[in-house]
Structure formats: structure tokens, C-alpha cells
TrEMBL record:
GO terms for molecular function: S-adenosylmethionine-dependent methyltransferase activity. This is Si:ch211-93g23.2. Residues 45-136 form the Methyltransferase type domain. Pfam families: Methyltransf_11. InterPro entries: Diverse_substrate_MTase, Methyltransf_11, SAM-dependent_MTases_sf. It comes from Hippocampus comes (Tiger tail seahorse).
Length: 161
């Protein structure tokens, strides 16, 4: 079951102030994806986008970027601060993304995946990702193992290079 926090206006303001903005991670993701997709990046989805700080960082690299979140208050703040034409936001849970199968080049979750129903989210990410698409998760909790087929072994081999 996904948890629903940071929805009240005071929580939304605090979240905006303290949420991580992962500039370096975005560069690593793009470097990793480039050869796999011949540097043709169409659609990125930032799941659990909150205030959109991480979502807008993807805009220079993709034709379209969509941030999703369960919180109307978070999405309201994201929309109010959005200045990129190719960025939009949709309300949805992480486990039920509003995209057709094999449509998305990149699915990210920046300090949000620990709130998701992990098995359902991973299955949903796999559904929406194109072949050679990428799932990138950034979290501040290292006490959880992420296991999903061969992905775990591959991830750790790539991150330690």
C-alpha cells in the first residue's frame, strides 16, 4: 500500500524547501541511456514528483516530461513553479501510471519510491517502459533491497563502475 504524506499545505512547503535536487544523477542517467536509445529521448515520467524539482531537470533531454503524484497539493505547487513547455503533471498513484504499455523511455522516482507498493510499482514501471528503457530510483534509505529479476545484479554492476 502506498503512503499518502506531504499533502497538507504546511507539509508541501517544507517538502519544497528540503527535497533533494539530483543534478548529478540526471547526468549519469542520460549518459547511461544515450547509447541504448541513440540519444533519442522522447518521454520521461517522474513518479512521485512532489513539487516537481526533479521533474524539470529532465526537460532539456526529453521531448516530453510528465510528473505524477497522488497529492493534488504537491501537483498544484509543481504546476505553479513550472516554466518548461515540455513538462506537464498528472495525478496518479505510482502503481497505476496513466500511460500505455511500452511508451516511456525513462521512469524516475526521486526520494519517493520508499512510499510505493514496491512489487506493484516495479511491475507497472516494466509495463510502461519501452524496450531498452530505463528505471532510475534515487532514495535516501539504504535498508531496503530492490529485487526484480536480473535487474538487481545489473544495477549494482553498473553503479560500481
Amino acid at each position: 500500500m502506498a503512503f499518502r504524506f506531504f499533502e497538507e499545505s504546511a507539509h508541501v512547503a517544507a517538502y519544497l524547501q528540503y527535497r533533494v535536487t539530483p543534478h548529478e544523477l540526471i547526468n549519469k542517467i542520460i549518459d547511461f541511456m544515450g547509447p541504448k536509445l541513440q540519444n533519442k529521448f522522447n518521454l520521461a515520467v517522474d513518479v512521485g514528483c512532489g513539487n516537481g524539482k526533479g521533474t524539470v531537470l529532465l526537460a532539456p533531454y526529453f521531448n516530453q516530461v510528465v510528473g505524477t503524484d497522488v497529492s493534488p497539493a504537491q501537483l498544484g505547487l509543481a504546476r505553479a513553479n513550472s516554466i518548461r513547455q515540455n513538462v506537464s503533471y498528472r495525478q496518479s498513484p505510482a502503481e497505476q501510471l496513466p500511460f500505455e504499455s511500452s511508451q516511456v523511455d525513462l521512469v524516475t522516482a526521486t526520494t519517493a519510491a520508499h512510499w510505493f507498493d514496491r512489487p506493484r510499482f516495479l511491475k507497472e514501471a516494466e509495463r510502461v517502459l519501452k524496450p531498452n528503457g530505463c528505471l532510475a530510483l534515487l532514495g535516501n534509505m539504504m535498508d531496503r533491497a530492490l529485487e526484480y529479476g536480473d535487474a538487481t545484479r545489473f544495477f549494482f554492476s553498473q553503479i560500481n563502475k
